Amino acid sequence: MKRILILSLLLAGVVACPSVVSAASKKADKAASESGKSSAKVKSVPFKGAVKSVDKVAKTVTIAGKDHDRQFQVTSDTRITKGGKPAILDDIAEGDNVTGAYKDIDGKMNLVSITVKSETKKVEPKEQTGKK
């Protein structure tokens, strides 16, 4: 009789344990969402392309794309490098070839890192000679 009672209590404890852990997890998720941080890790996505524009006031870098341009947000955590050395947003110019990674957080593409690979000079369109 004692064995049945002990086994019943142990079984009840095992069944109740996951619900306690689940409740604690829900509290952590709620606290994280209230503080503006996501409990799930967001993976970074690589990119490469040519810089179409740099907005130093809004702290954005626009990369030209085949179908559409992509605008990335520079944050205080963004790592910027140029020529293998640390750089700042002012060092990125239109026409630069860049690579990097971003995280999509709440619909914004926040730059994790951006590296200026090479500078591209602007090429003026050539005049077409009208030989007939």
Strand order of the largest sheet: 3-2-1-6-7-4-5
Instruction: Kindly provide the radius of gyration, computed on alpha-carbon positions and rounded to a whole number of angstroms.
Output: 27 Å
- Total DSSP E strands: 7
The residue ranges in which pLDDT falls below 50 over 5 or more consecutive positions are 19-25
The CATH superfamily of the largest domain turns out to be Copper binding periplasmic protein CusF
What is the average of the pLDDT values?
Answer: 78
The string of secondary-structure elements, in order, is HEEEEEEE
Level-1 CATH class name of the largest domain: Mainly Beta
* Annotation field: number of helices: 1
Shape: rod-shaped
Q: Quickly count the domains.
A: 2
Helix proportion: 25-40%
Percent of sequence in beta strands: 25-35%
CATH architecture tag of the largest domain? Beta Barrel
End-to-end separation in angstroms reads: 108 Å
What is the name of the CATH topology of the largest domain?
A: OB fold (Dihydrolipoamide Acetyltransferase, E2P)
> How would you sum up the major sheet?
7 strands, mixed
